Amino acid sequence: MDNKFINELLFKYHMVHSTRNHDIFTKEPFYLEDKYHNIFNETSTKINNLVNRIIEGINGEFNDLVPYIPEFPYKEEILALKNPLAPLLWTRYDGFVKDDGSGVFYSELNYDKPCAQREIMVMESLVNSKENINIGFIEKLKNNFYSICNDYFKDKDKLTIALLSSSSRAEETHLMMLFKELFQNENFKFVICNNTNFQYIDNSIYSFEKKIDVILRLYPTEYFKEVSCFSEMLRLFENGKLLLLNDPRVIIGQCKNLYSYLWKLVKEKDSRLSESEVDVINKSLPYTELLNIDNIQKAVEDKDRWVIKPVYGRYSIDVFIGELYSQEEWKQCIDYVIEALKSGKSFILQKFCKIREDMAPYSNGIFTKRVEAFANLGIFISIKDYIGTCVRFNPSYLTEEENTWITPILNKKECFKTINTNIDYRKFTSSLIRFGFCGSYCRISEYIKTSPLVLNKSKYEELKSLTNEIALIFKKVQSFVGDNISIYKDAFNLEYLEKVIKNSNTEELCLLGRMDWILDTNGVWKVLEINSETPAGICETMYISEELLKEVKISNLQNINSEFKEKVLKQVNKMIDEYSKVKRIEKIAIVGSLYYEDWYTINTIKNILSELNGITITLGNIYDLKVSEKGEVSLYGEKVDAIFRYYPLDWLEYKETEDLARLKYALESNNVISLNNTSSIISQNKMFFALIYELLKFNFFNEKEALLIEKHIPYTTLEASEMRTNDFVVKPILSREGKGITLSRNIINIDEFNEGYIFQEYIFSETSDNRYPVFGTYLCGTEFAGIYTRVGTEITDVNCMYTPTYVEMEDGEI
């Protein structure tokens, strides 16, 4: 992380300096789905309205709550206050997305002294975007503070505010320094105090010889016995002479045993709760009861179901989550809690609720990566309205200061979703053998994910359109390189194939290619590369997506690949007509290696091409091709006019057989035509994207093309020193299936990648079930033809899973 930002944190935002100053904040944002943002907004305000109603009725309608509030100094005096409840300046609910995606829940309500305001302010300033859900947080907080104070002291223009925090809590004291700078104006003057800095003089409270009108506190109510003159403060507050913020009665909301009381009302169907309030308690507050010697046996017998928390606990101290402990460790926790109960400390027993694990951005100050982490979402309410959200990540369920980190948090609409099914993987794939599909029998790991992805229709249409537009740019660049191959052959490592490329016989980008796209965390499509030579997934695209759709049985899903076959045939016919100007094509051999995936792929290609009129199709192993000294090519004794080559053109350089060595010369002399054009090896080459960015410097592209490139193609270069970020990937220029690709954060010596590599900006992508989906869009020439999606790790390799992808037939958001 840059020093400018660190200095801003330390001095502008008064962040306490620590050895973790580089990894507390990560600039890369976390995206919270729109639906969860709305749920948090709605449920938190409902619960807050209920809590306020209960606090206001503590001496009347809800006086039966009093026994649920453990003793603390000044309890009777605070609960007996007769003045109206002061408006709430701030509270923070610790919220989480449920693991099963069914909704959200709140582990606790921080009414008394909520922190993390600074983190939201930093997040607001980092991303100036309407998607930043914290835009306006600072102004809302300031205006609410002014409004509360001015309404309380209608006859006073100028007010003096004491900012009370504990001198032992450096973070909170520094936060008060930030509030002083934030709130101070000509009518509001501030004094930073600790608990011993007050005096009672002439029926008023003073601090540092200044008469105090308002005490804004980050100080626990149950420790007010440590605050000098507190009895007098309470009396002045009750008589409207002093404003305490937050009102000390909010300890009722802070008290975790409030959960026990609310659940008692729910179980007894108490008429004091409305149906809406019962509903929000059921959905958002885990079941809770006061822990005692009688019910602790529940936790002993079923540790994975329960969490034990102190009623007035903070900072995750003495919080015990049964699932995180072994039986022996849990026994030690129980013994500790029993002793604490005997000494008078109060605990609650709360039902354990699983938290969704996210792929969160994390920076160590140099590199940023995605790691599995749990998001604690701090939902802030001021007066009665939601005003912002802080996200704190932690590798474990507990949010602990030494491990947590913060990111900006942005709101997003779902671009795609996963439909969870119970379709048996093995039963489903066994039926696909009739199509020649053997992928599921040749892999130890699962090959097909039977929970498909569904693209938002507008995002699908955008991807389809971008595929066509970017394909035209690729065609333009490929033709340019092909016309100048004698200049670019060395850079592309294609010296051996110069004449073959010159003899391509077509200006088409490809016969059948596939662009690989990811959706970045900003919702922007990014194309990582194009496989214009030997795109995988053809069998899956032709058959499996249709077969799974029959099993899913959701009527409004559309098979994106329904026209795939027709588009391939159309492109083949178009290119055969073009090739016929140099050679009549009557017999085509479809050839590839005997690698299992290649074999079922070329079987599928044969099924498609068998519908060509007047053309004979044969299938075979490329190593069985025979090439005579005259350059005539045959397969299993039969002469062929053209080959569909499911075999990388650059592999001919290896000359694995004499016939393959001679095949190069047969292609150069048009003794045989490569149906998938030889010029497509240019765009297949990873150097292709680096050249695009070089050509961008020389105005090779028009304005629209340049904008498309800069927005949708990751920055790519030949020199690591030219990278605009520390987060990049290194790719061999002729690699396939993720082989040889290295992430910058894993590089020890960058000099190892001096030749034969490109450097490409790392794109932080949307995830699905914490996996990385890559949407492969098929091209026939420059026209979109279908989608082949895989999910896997950051670098998609041979161990990824094919995931059928559909689109909703009706327009609108998912």
TrEMBL record:
Sorted keywords for this record are:
ATP-binding, Ligase, Magnesium, Metal-binding, Nucleotide-binding
Q: Which InterPro entries match?
A: GSPS_pre-ATP-grasp-like_dom (IPR005494)
Q: Name one Pfam family in it.
A: GSP_synth
Glutathionylspermidine synthase pre-ATP-grasp-like domain residues are: 445-807
Q: What is this protein called?
A: Glutathionylspermidine synthase family protein
